[in-house]
Write a structure and sequence with these properties.
Elements: E1 4-6, E2 12-14, H1 15-25, E3 30-31, H2 32-37, H3 42-50, E4 54-58, E5 61-64, H4 72-79, E6 84-85, H5 87-93, E7 104-109, E8 124-129, H6 131-134, E9 138-143, E10 146-151, H7 153-162, H8 169-180, H9 187-196, H10 200-212
């Protein structure tokens, strides 16, 4: 059944049309407060979710369902702005891995609340990072038209050593060889990061073999 609302300027509009307008204005993801500000009630939001028109992606956050939903990159940017793409996802982004991860690998501050990472529409592999090294190597790059924070090449390679036990041998070895052959590599930064991440000896020993071998 269609629900009609009267807007502030005296126009009558279908509630679904209004909800879609709100979501588009908010870049694909809207909060409960955005709908309420547009004249909708909480029960209207629940009804649209039950009817399959809206998807609840986290408590208080919604997007249009199915084909009209936001890409995962936009969900990351909007719902987890502190997240930094790292390790497996960063390796794939830089072309150091052929394996497209089923989950987004993201680094977040160790103090971050777990509830903020409860996003129904996203599969996450979370790395909780100490505050003193959280920003190290952080840059912004384009992910299919969405700008996301990601660790640079050197931080990503150092993280491969730091989280060695989590990585498949094939992914680890391919990543190091790909980096060694990358014309964009910065060995000075690699050395600086490796010292701060306490993997300097392992990084230098292996990279010397790859670069000089």
């Amino acid at each position: 059944m269609c629900v009609i609302l009267k807007t502030e300027v005296g126009e009558y509009v279908d509630i679904r049309t209004l909800a879609k307008q709100v979501i588009i204005e908010k870049g694909g993801i809207a909060k409960s407060a955005d709908f309420v500000a547009a004249g909708m009630r909480a029960v209207d939001i629940v009804n649209m979710c039950n009817a399959g028109y809206l998807d609840r992606i986290r408590h208080g956050y919604y997007q249009l369902a199915e084909a009209d939903s936001s890409p995962e990159e936009q969900l990351l940017a909007t719902l987890i702005p502190k997240g930094i793409v790292c390790v497996e996802s960063a390796l794939f982004h830089y072309g150091y891995s052929d394996f497209a991860p089923r989950k987004w690998s993201i680094a977040v501050p160790r103090s971050m609340s777990r509830t903020k990472l409860d996003v129904d529409a996203l599969a996450l592999q979370t790395y909780y990072v100490q505050s003193e090294i959280y920003e190290l190597g952080r840059i912004t790059d384009d992910f299919d038209g969405v700008m996301l924070s990601v660790y640079d090449r050197e931080r990503t390679i150092c993280d491969c050593f730091k989280y060695r036990s989590r990585l498949d041998n094939e992914i680890f070895n391919k990543a190091l060889n790909a980096y060694a052959n990358d014309t964009k590599k910065n060995l000075h930064n690699l050395s600086v990061y490796a010292k701060k991440l306490r993997v300097y000896k392992k990084v230098t020993e292996l990279m010397e073999v790859l670069l000089n071998g």
